[in-house]
């Protein structure tokens, strides 16, 4: 039989060496580089040492995929950063952006040119997805910082749903939007007279994993 041991240096916190199998396993707690020496000993007490370097790095960030349209125009923000603008509700805007671990906020300023107004959106990230619906928050008068993660929208009312993608007056006329989407057209409770609105959707992304490489 062989016996494995670390004779110099140390493994990253959270990892351990199985003395019987030589398997290094566990979940590292933080990024960093560890230098250590592993020794294997056989039944005759013969030994072999090997110096190793194990590097723990942060994995690439989770990516948000967003498809959105607003009748008539919008400004789209993720975590306070402007992703882009749109001014033709018949053509969806598509965005990809890095998310942060924990709380994220999609914020949209919607601008209507007259008539019935609405916003529709689908968003997805590696472990979940969401659509525009009554879980979004909306207001007609937003103070400075309304698009940021730390902004408190607790007093904002819930968005009003005007029906699933395909309803009048928009029907299925948004080019590039998923044809069978469950997303709802949303706005304030007065979609005829509220021409500029501010919408927020808050969601959580799980802790991003760590990646391990050795040399």
Structure description:
The protein is mainly beta and 215 residues long. Helix content is 0%, strand content 52%. The protein is built from no helices and 17 strands. The strands form five sheets. It has a five-stranded antiparallel beta sheet with strand order 8-7-10-16-13, with no helix packed on it. A four-stranded antiparallel beta sheet has the order 1-4-5-17, with no helix packed on it. It has a four-stranded antiparallel beta sheet with strand order 9-6-11-12, with no helix packed on it. Strand 4 and strand 5 form a beta hairpin. It is elongated and about 90 Å long. The mean pLDDT is 94.
How would you characterize the largest beta sheet?
5 strands, antiparallel
Tertiary shape: elongated
Distance between the termini: 26 Å
**Structural class determined from secondary elements:** mainly beta
The DSSP helix count reads 0
Quick rundown:
This protein has strands spanning 3-9, 15-17, 24-26, 32-41, 47-58, 63-71, 73-78, 81-86, 93-98, 102-111, 118-125, 128-131, 137-139, 160-164, 184-187, 196-205, 210-214. With 215 residues, it is mostly beta strands.
Layout of SSEs?
Layout: E1 3-9, E2 15-17, E3 24-26, E4 32-41, E5 47-58, E6 63-71, E7 73-78, E8 81-86, E9 93-98, E10 102-111, E11 118-125, E12 128-131, E13 137-139, E14 160-164, E15 184-187, E16 196-205, E17 210-214
Antiparallel strand pairs: 1-4, 2-3, 4-5, 5-17, 6-9, 6-11, 7-8, 7-10, 10-16, 11-12, 13-16, 14-15
